[in-house]
Specification:
Length: about 180
Amino acid sequence: MCTSPKSFDFIMRSLPADLSGYTFIDIGSGKSRTLLLASHYSFGAIVGVEFARELVAIAQGNLETYRNPAQRCRALSVVEADAAAYAFPDTPLVVYFYNPFSRDVFDVVLRNLVQSLEQSPRDCYVVYGSSSHNAIGWAKPAIRDCGVFEELQTPPMPFFLDAVRTIDYAVFRRRTNRP
Protein backbone atom coordinates (compact mmCIF):
# COMPACT_ATOMS: atom_id res chain seq x y z
CA MET A 1 0.00 0.00 0.00
CA CYS A 2 1.34 3.43 -0.88
CA THR A 3 0.87 6.90 0.55
CA SER A 4 -2.09 8.85 -0.79
CA PRO A 5 -1.37 12.27 -2.36
CA LYS A 6 -3.35 14.21 0.25
CA SER A 7 -1.74 12.28 3.11
CA PHE A 8 1.71 12.95 1.65
CA ASP A 9 1.01 16.68 1.31
CA PHE A 10 -0.24 16.76 4.91
CA ILE A 11 2.96 15.07 6.15
CA MET A 12 5.13 17.45 4.13
CA ARG A 13 3.76 20.41 6.10
CA SER A 14 5.87 19.18 9.03
CA LEU A 15 9.12 19.71 7.09
CA PRO A 16 10.95 22.96 6.28
CA ALA A 17 9.54 25.00 3.41
CA ASP A 18 12.91 25.15 1.65
CA LEU A 19 14.10 21.63 0.87
CA SER A 20 16.36 22.56 -2.05
CA GLY A 21 19.52 21.24 -0.39
CA TYR A 22 17.92 17.98 0.76
CA THR A 23 17.85 14.56 -0.86
CA PHE A 24 14.54 12.75 -0.41
CA ILE A 25 15.06 9.01 0.07
CA ASP A 26 12.05 6.67 -0.08
CA ILE A 27 13.06 3.37 1.47
CA GLY A 28 10.91 0.66 -0.10
CA SER A 29 9.78 2.90 -2.94
CA GLY A 30 7.71 0.32 -4.83
CA LYS A 31 6.43 1.57 -8.18
CA SER A 32 7.45 5.22 -7.43
CA ARG A 33 4.23 6.95 -6.43
CA THR A 34 5.82 8.67 -3.42
CA LEU A 35 8.83 9.70 -5.53
CA LEU A 36 6.48 11.39 -7.99
CA LEU A 37 4.62 13.11 -5.14
CA ALA A 38 7.95 14.29 -3.70
CA SER A 39 8.87 15.78 -7.08
CA HIS A 40 6.25 18.48 -6.44
CA TYR A 41 8.55 19.85 -3.71
CA SER A 42 11.87 21.67 -4.03
CA PHE A 43 14.18 18.76 -3.16
CA GLY A 44 17.68 18.82 -4.62
CA ALA A 45 17.32 15.14 -5.57
CA ILE A 46 14.87 12.28 -5.04
CA VAL A 47 15.94 8.63 -4.74
CA GLY A 48 13.88 5.50 -4.37
CA VAL A 49 15.43 2.39 -2.84
CA GLU A 50 13.64 -0.81 -3.82
CA PHE A 51 14.61 -4.46 -3.44
CA ALA A 52 12.18 -6.04 -5.96
CA ARG A 53 13.63 -5.94 -9.48
CA GLU A 54 10.19 -6.00 -11.14
CA LEU A 55 9.08 -2.96 -9.12
CA VAL A 56 12.30 -1.11 -9.97
CA ALA A 57 11.62 -1.63 -13.69
CA ILE A 58 8.08 -0.27 -13.34
CA ALA A 59 9.32 2.66 -11.23
CA GLN A 60 11.99 3.57 -13.76
CA GLY A 61 9.37 3.64 -16.50
CA ASN A 62 7.11 5.80 -14.34
CA LEU A 63 9.94 8.25 -13.61
CA GLU A 64 10.82 8.51 -17.30
CA THR A 65 7.28 9.22 -18.46
CA TYR A 66 5.93 11.38 -15.64
CA ARG A 67 5.23 14.95 -16.70
CA ASN A 68 3.40 17.37 -14.46
CA PRO A 69 3.61 21.17 -14.42
CA ALA A 70 3.63 21.03 -10.59
CA GLN A 71 7.02 19.26 -10.60
CA ARG A 72 9.73 21.27 -8.85
CA CYS A 73 12.39 18.54 -8.80
CA ARG A 74 13.30 16.51 -11.87
CA ALA A 75 16.38 14.79 -10.43
CA LEU A 76 14.60 11.50 -9.75
CA SER A 77 16.10 8.02 -9.66
CA VAL A 78 15.40 4.59 -8.30
CA VAL A 79 18.06 2.17 -7.07
CA GLU A 80 17.68 -1.59 -6.95
CA ALA A 81 19.16 -2.36 -3.56
CA ASP A 82 18.68 -4.08 -0.26
CA ALA A 83 17.69 -1.26 2.11
CA ALA A 84 19.82 -2.86 4.83
CA ALA A 85 22.93 -2.33 2.67
CA TYR A 86 22.04 1.06 1.17
CA ALA A 87 24.68 3.80 1.56
CA PHE A 88 23.01 7.14 2.26
CA PRO A 89 24.35 10.13 0.30
CA ASP A 90 26.36 12.77 2.19
CA THR A 91 23.73 15.48 1.70
CA PRO A 92 21.03 16.74 4.05
CA LEU A 93 18.32 14.07 4.03
CA VAL A 94 14.62 13.45 4.30
CA VAL A 95 14.32 9.68 4.77
CA TYR A 96 10.79 8.39 4.18
CA PHE A 97 9.47 5.04 5.39
CA TYR A 98 5.92 3.89 4.70
CA ASN A 99 5.23 0.31 5.84
CA PRO A 100 8.48 -0.75 4.19
CA PHE A 101 9.42 -3.99 5.97
CA SER A 102 9.82 -5.85 9.26
CA ARG A 103 11.26 -4.45 12.46
CA ASP A 104 14.47 -6.49 12.08
CA VAL A 105 15.25 -4.93 8.71
CA PHE A 106 14.20 -1.48 9.93
CA ASP A 107 16.63 -1.72 12.85
CA VAL A 108 19.52 -2.42 10.44
CA VAL A 109 18.53 0.45 8.14
CA LEU A 110 18.24 2.80 11.12
CA ARG A 111 21.69 1.76 12.40
CA ASN A 112 23.15 2.41 8.94
CA LEU A 113 21.51 5.84 8.82
CA VAL A 114 22.83 6.73 12.29
CA GLN A 115 26.33 5.57 11.31
CA SER A 116 26.16 7.66 8.12
CA LEU A 117 25.12 10.74 10.12
CA GLU A 118 27.96 10.17 12.60
CA GLN A 119 30.53 9.84 9.80
CA SER A 120 29.19 12.87 7.93
CA PRO A 121 27.13 15.11 10.26
CA ARG A 122 24.27 16.84 8.42
CA ASP A 123 20.62 17.72 8.72
CA CYS A 124 18.27 14.79 8.54
CA TYR A 125 14.55 14.29 8.91
CA VAL A 126 12.97 10.85 9.25
CA VAL A 127 9.32 10.37 8.36
CA TYR A 128 7.67 7.09 9.32
CA GLY A 129 4.14 6.36 8.20
CA SER A 130 2.03 3.29 8.77
CA SER A 131 -1.50 2.28 7.98
CA SER A 132 -1.34 -1.30 9.19
CA HIS A 133 0.10 -3.76 11.68
CA ASN A 134 0.81 -1.03 14.26
CA ALA A 135 4.33 -0.68 12.85
CA ILE A 136 4.39 2.89 14.13
CA GLY A 137 4.13 1.41 17.64
CA TRP A 138 7.63 -0.09 17.39
CA ALA A 139 9.18 2.30 14.85
CA LYS A 140 8.70 5.50 16.88
CA PRO A 141 10.46 4.16 20.01
CA ALA A 142 13.26 2.68 17.89
CA ILE A 143 13.90 6.06 16.25
CA ARG A 144 13.70 7.95 19.56
CA ASP A 145 15.86 5.41 21.42
CA CYS A 146 18.77 5.61 18.98
CA GLY A 147 19.54 8.99 20.59
CA VAL A 148 20.09 10.88 17.35
CA PHE A 149 16.60 12.16 16.59
CA GLU A 150 13.96 14.20 18.34
CA GLU A 151 10.30 13.73 17.50
CA LEU A 152 8.53 16.79 16.20
CA GLN A 153 5.03 17.69 17.30
CA THR A 154 2.66 16.88 14.44
CA PRO A 155 -1.10 17.10 14.16
CA PRO A 156 -3.05 13.86 13.81
CA MET A 157 -3.65 12.75 10.26
CA PRO A 158 -7.23 13.35 9.13
CA PHE A 159 -8.97 10.80 6.94
CA PHE A 160 -8.59 11.74 3.29
CA LEU A 161 -10.92 10.28 0.69
CA ASP A 162 -7.97 9.35 -1.54
CA ALA A 163 -6.54 7.09 1.21
CA VAL A 164 -7.58 3.53 1.93
CA ARG A 165 -7.35 4.23 5.66
CA THR A 166 -5.97 6.85 8.01
CA ILE A 167 -2.19 6.93 8.32
CA ASP A 168 -0.36 7.07 11.62
CA TYR A 169 2.87 8.98 11.14
CA ALA A 170 5.74 10.61 12.98
CA VAL A 171 8.39 13.09 11.93
CA PHE A 172 11.83 13.23 13.52
CA ARG A 173 14.69 15.71 13.16
CA ARG A 174 18.36 15.01 13.79
CA ARG A 175 19.37 16.61 17.07
CA THR A 176 21.93 19.34 16.74
CA ASN A 177 22.92 19.06 20.41
CA ARG A 178 23.06 15.41 21.42
CA PRO A 179 22.54 14.53 25.09
